[in-house]
């Protein structure tokens, strides 16, 4: 498995995003939150993921973009955890929900715990 975040894994479909916010479930590990919903995807894809950082908490686009880059990197490094356990395709939105700043190391540790919580939730 390659540690990449290719275009075909990026959540871009408005239909899938609307589905996430209307019918999606959520797990969180402060300050990270994951909203997910099973979807039908093409080409044997297993996952579509998007990242978001609130403008309410980070007014400057530079800071929002920095945390979005960190979230994508945390996903990229730990996606093997998710892909190995997924039996059906999911659309996932990954949020950073705090004004507090975090180092990459802390964020990566929280991401691993969040992904473990997500796996436990879908196994129910």
UniProtKB/TrEMBL annotation:
Single Gene Ontology MF annotation: ribonuclease P activity
A GO BP entry: tRNA 5'-leader removal
Catalytic function, reaction form: Endonucleolytic cleavage of RNA, removing 5'-extranucleotides from tRNA precursor
Chain's role: RNaseP catalyzes the removal of the 5'-leader sequence from pre-tRNA to produce the mature 5'-terminus. It can also cleave other RNA substrates such as 4.5S RNA. The protein component plays an auxiliary but essential role in vivo by binding to the 5'-leader sequence and broadening the substrate specificity of the ribozyme.
Keyword tRNA processing listed: yes
Keywords: Endonuclease, Hydrolase, Nuclease, RNA-binding, tRNA processing
Lineage: Bacteria, Pseudomonadati, Bacteroidota, Flavobacteriia, Flavobacteriales
Membership in a protein family: Belongs to the RnpA family.
UniProt enzyme class: hydrolase
Subunit-level organization: Consists of a catalytic RNA component (M1 or rnpB) and a protein subunit.
Keyword Ligase annotated: no
Protein name per Swiss-Prot or TrEMBL: Ribonuclease P protein component
UniProt-listed Pfam families: Ribonuclease_P
Domain of life according to the entry: Bacteria
PANTHER family from the UniProt entry: RIBONUCLEASE P PROTEIN COMPONENT
Gene name, Swiss-Prot/TrEMBL: rnpA
GO cellular component labels: ribonuclease P complex
Entry EC number(s): 3.1.26.5
């Amino acid at each position: 498995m390659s540690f990449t975040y290719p275009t075909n894994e990026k959540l871009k479909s408005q239909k899938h995003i609307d589905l996430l916010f209307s019918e999606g479930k959520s797990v969180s590990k402060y300050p990270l939150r994951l909203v997910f919903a099973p979807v039908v995807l093409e080409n044997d894809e297993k996952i579509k993921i998007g990242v978001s950082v609130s403008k309410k908490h980070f007014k400057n686009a530079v800071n929002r973009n920095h945390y979005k880059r960190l979230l994508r990197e945390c996903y990229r490094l730990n996606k093997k955890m998710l892909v190995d356990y997924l039996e059906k395709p999911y659309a996932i939105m990954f949020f950073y929900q705090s004004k507090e700043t975090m180092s990459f190391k802390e964020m990566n540790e929280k991401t691993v715990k969040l992904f473990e919580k997500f796996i436990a939730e879908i196994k129910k």
